[in-house]
Design brief:
It is built from 5 helices and 4 strands, in the order βαβαααββα. The chain is of the alpha+beta class. A 4-stranded mixed sheet has the order 2-1-3-4, sandwiched between helices. β3 and β4 form a beta hairpin. The longest helix is centred in the first third of the chain and has 12 residues.
Amino acid sequence: MEIWINPACSKCRSAVSLLDAEGADYTVRRYLEDVPSEDEIREVLTRLGLEPWDITRTGEAEAKELGVGDWPRDDASRDRWIGALAGHPKLIQRPIITADDGTAVVGRSEEAVRDALSR
């Protein structure tokens, strides 16, 4: 199991605390420092069953500067969104937990983290 975190994020810290409390075996990836490639983002999106706009933090200043709120949310624009996430990792929703069964969850709630633990 791997968890993508920003240590400054309270949701990330809560998720890590819960994983620790449950004795989970996991690896931490500080994704702002160890930025995921476009291919890694595509793989995580497949595991999540989501589209890039579903995991984009559109309220961030960088998102507003890029104007992502006005970008189309369709197949033709998918690569543009993925490029933005790889180029501006702060836009990636967090934490993302990749489960041992090949799936992933956005672990913003205790329920989502427990869901990842059960896989």
